[in-house]
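Problem 12. The chain below contains 406 residues. Write out its predicted structure in token notation.
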Amino acid sequence: MDNAETNEPKRAGSGAPAEELAREVYWAALPLSEHQVGAIQTGGWTDLAVGWSELEATLRRDHGSGPLPDDPILEMGSPTKRRFKRFTFSMLRPLMRRYDRITADLALLGLETSQELASARSDTAALTSEVQRLRAEIREAQATWDALRTEFATRLHEHDVRVGTATAELEALTRRMAAGAHPVPPAPGTTAEMPVSAPSTSVMPDAFYWRFEAALRGSPESIKAKLEQYRGLADELRGTAAGSPLWLDLGCGEGQFLSMLRDWGWRVLGMDISPQAVQACVEQGFEAVVGALPDFLASYDGEPPLGMSAIQVVEHLDPSAWLPTLQFARPILAPGGAFVIETINPLNVDALVTWFFGDITHTWPANPETLRVMAGFAGFDRVEIRLMNEDAQGRPQDYALIARNA
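Solution.
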């Protein structure tokens, strides 16, 4: 036998006899059975109102019982104890009946409260269901609104495309009628001029300008490094076409970008307003023509190019020529093609002061958002702005607008 168990002193008033005596003196209720305890712990009352109803009925029955109800507690103990308990019970019965009535009324109040709670729970469930239904309707309405907004944006874009295309075609037709004939692209290796409606007049001699541009833009190596940034786009476009697609470089200068494009697997066509620059391209074996924007594009009737570029060109044009250039470029661009316009970033003040105003042939700085809106109006399907050529402070000095045809 365990010593700890045998030597542990018993506390006064503890144990089964003490508990039975306490129940006899205070007439406590008999202990709950294991079944009743399990029912309480597991929520045996499935409805609160049922429990309150049973309690209220029990209390009402006790209140209406006779002076000596058949209570098991009164039959416990010795005859003396039973007589004492019956006598005490009969003496206290009027007070206990009053107490029973009060507890019965409290039970009735609990019953009514539980019924109200059940009703509130039912109302809450109905309200929750209604809220869920409304949320579903709101989600459906939001989805409908999003679809309508998307459709509206699509229709608006289609409208802009139609308006931009019609305007471009009308302008091109007007220019051709004014020229009196439909021009034909020159044969490869020639320097024949494309008709222009309003040739630009340079503010400096052509022979001097190229020396000036070389000094301003940097060495051929630095220019080549900047143009290398378009290798990924050129390869992407060429991967969508069979063979060697055509790239049209507007403002081609003396052909540095044409040379790189040819190395990348493209057939190339250059255009520049300078006869000297075009002649330099022809001497290198490139197909190049003299022309001016936007007239060259308005009268172009050759093979649709898959790629088109205007590198550091738009800042030389009058701002009124920007939108027509984009409008005339889109119809002649091959499906899935891209038009790249690179220019100085006017949001970089140092680049604006140093590079834009440093060239007296520049007309007006092109804000990237201005060209973006114009490209969208001209009907290009996707328009992207790429910031490029950071300065020592990490600020982009140039940007490229890449407008793609559907």
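Discussion. The radius of gyration is 48 Å. Students who got a different answer should revisit the alignment rule from Section 12.3.
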